[in-house]
Amino acid sequence: MDVEKKLTRFEKARILGARAIQISMGAKPLVDITDSLDPIDIAYEELKAGVLPLDVIRDE
After folding, report:
1. Residue 59 forms part of a structural domain
2. 58 within domain boundaries
3. What is the pLDDT of residue 55?
4. CATH for 20
5. What are the start-end ranges of the E strands in 1-60?
6. Which among 22, 35, 51, 57 is least surrounded, fewest beta carbons within 10 Å?
7. Residue 15 is assigned to a structural domain of this protein
8. Which pLDDT score is estimated for 3?
9. Closest CA to 3 of 38, 40, 54
10. What is the pTM (predicted TM-score) of this model?
11. Which residues of 9-46 are buried (b: 16+ CB within 10 A; e: fewer)?
């Protein structure tokens, strides 16, 4: 959850979209699926759990 607070809304949208595409193409979800099979919902649950296999690199 701390990871989610550090991301801008644009970074969050990009990461959720990228992970949702991976899941829809057959990547194994990294959290237990209980409520929804929607790839965006699964990606959001992974973000909340802090287990996304993606990193944000900012140009500063």
Report:
1. no
2. no
3. 83
4. 3.90.940.10
5. none
6. 57
7. yes
8. 58
9. 54
10. 0.82
11. eeebeebbeebbebbeeeeebeeeeeeeeebeebbbbb
d(CA 7, CA 25): 25
For position 1, what pLDDT does the model report? 45
Q: What are phi and psi of 33, to 5 degrees?
A: -95, 115
Residue at 11: amino acid letter:
E
- Spatial distance between the Cα atoms of 57 and 22, rounded to a whole number of angstroms: 19
- pLDDT tens digits, one per residue of 1-58: 455 568 889 999 999 999 999 999 999 999 999 888 999 999 999 999 989 888 888 8
Q: Indicate the number of domains in the chain.
A: 1
User: CA 16 to CA 39: how far, in whole Å?
Assistant: 9
